[in-house]
Amino acid sequence: MNHAADSTRCLERILESDALSVLNPADATLFTTRLKTHFDTLFTHYVEVYGHQYDCYYHLHQLVKNLAEGFAQRDGRLREQDDRTLANPLWYRSEQEAGMACYVDLMGPTLADLHDKIPYFKALGITYLHLMPLYEAPAGDSDGGYAVSDYRKVNPQLGTMAELKDLADALQQAGIRLVLDFVFNHTSDEHTWAKAALAGDTYYQNFYYLFEDHAQVQQYETTLREIFPQVRRGSFTFNETLQKWVWTTFNSFQWDLNYSNPAVFNAITAEMLFLANIGCSALRLDALAFIWKEMGTDCENQPLAHTLIRAFNACLQIAAPAVVFKSEAIVHPDEVVKYIDKKECQLSYNPLLMALLWNSLATRKTRLLTRSMKKSFAIAPDTTWINYLRCHDDIGWTFDDAIAQQAGINPHDHRYFLNQFFTGRFEGSFASGVPFAENPSNGDCRVCGTLASLCGLERGLAAGDKNQIDTALARIQLLYGIAFSIGGIPLLYSSDELGLLNDHSYRDDDTRWHDDRWVHRVAITESQISLALGERTPDNLTEQSQQEVFAMFQHMLATRKAHPVFGDARTQILDTYNDHTFACLRVSDNGQKLMVIANFSEQAQTINGDILTVAQRAPATDLLGEAVLSGNEPDITLNGYQLQWWLFS
Length: 649
Fold this sequence. Notes:
single chain, 8-stranded parallel barrel, about 40% helix
């Protein structure tokens, strides 16, 4: 097949049809320009997945109609946002960007209330607000909102779609970008499509993976891993109404979508464009590693999953180019980086950095962190990392076993140690985490807990020990100080900025007690915000620590924003020749250099001064303190848990 000729002829036929009839002449001209620019990419990916089906070109024609309809619904404000983004496509590489993720009800508690929190976000330095799933979902357990019943309706307990659009406008006026979740691997079993399937509509039954033959299910199961073994075993649920097995990777009420059906791709694209037209700057691609199923594989990170995401990306470039994708691939590091590309996901969570920062905190050793970052941190200069320490989810230890073994570490035993350490089961641990998804077959688990509780603040406050408290605060600064400076957008999880502790009240909630992730999904009160903003004075050690953490984050973010080298700059991971310390060098295009040095031990550590040769032994100032370097020092000393940001002259 002459691909170029086929793509060109296909586009000509689409443009000769009524596909753009929904657009006025001016809109049709702009849409056609973008369509011509990106159609070959879309065509290539779409045909790769669906070209073997007899009706592929019919569905491709319908997809373009969907794109035209989505573009038509994009108002003038969003068209201006498109223009600004096209003029500054690498906005996400800027040192000015700093994010926060939160649940509406834990911060608001409604969308209307979030308007009043904008001054709080701005005081902290937030420019990017990720609202966790807020769509209509089943009552009770909805996997924290990730079981979506209607993408076009807001959970009525949080507000309305009109209020969400109003909030998007208000955030934009305040210089804060809105980020939303695109939950596209599955819907809830209460979604309109699922209800139609349950009612016997074969068209919508083909939207999901349904099996009558249990032997076929068992054949798939032999190569699949269990995601929530503490809730149920396997990846399929038998539905009594259908008398069929439904593919349910996560929970029995979350039905996996069947992307081998082009009608599913088209339908979910329409939902994606609806979300884009709310006014967001980015969509987080939830569970993207699971979207393509292939018998005999683990059905994760399959090549056609990447093809589908690139097709979705092309759709956005045509209809809503202001919106970028954020990858949520919590998988092997070698697989994570495969999703990061300007034509796939421009942004990506950095689960490896997250896991290994916690690892270094537990072990006081940095060899695994340094070796792993040397291998996996570098990505294309037109993409960026989202660097985080906590999120709504658990902590899983997704480091590279091969690198661990090279460092003399037994991966299985080490993960067991980390789980024991951060759940407080290891003697001498400072952490107060909670185990999550413990597998009764092999004893494996993941870890839950707030930043502060995992860093030892909970134990320090319980003991009323100021030394323990100060040490916990130093650990918090150490972890986030690296996330703020190593390169990428730092993303705080709400409650981190106040050093809030675990909340065990979920155990008294019939819909939450079985999901230990709720221990770190902590509500923020008006009183805590008032305290952070200095509107009242602290009454006790707990409040004093909250105020100190907020002030610490304010200072670090303000410092970051004052120096472009924290933004669009190259990162070089350095050898310190001290197993307790970590270092990296940032170099901007104009030659500005910043060296980050961190001590993961309670004890003072010394680094050979030869490390300064990476900056030609130029004089430097520590942006986090008052220290200076002449450049001729024989060594550099760091106190316990100290972080240094050396800006070279």
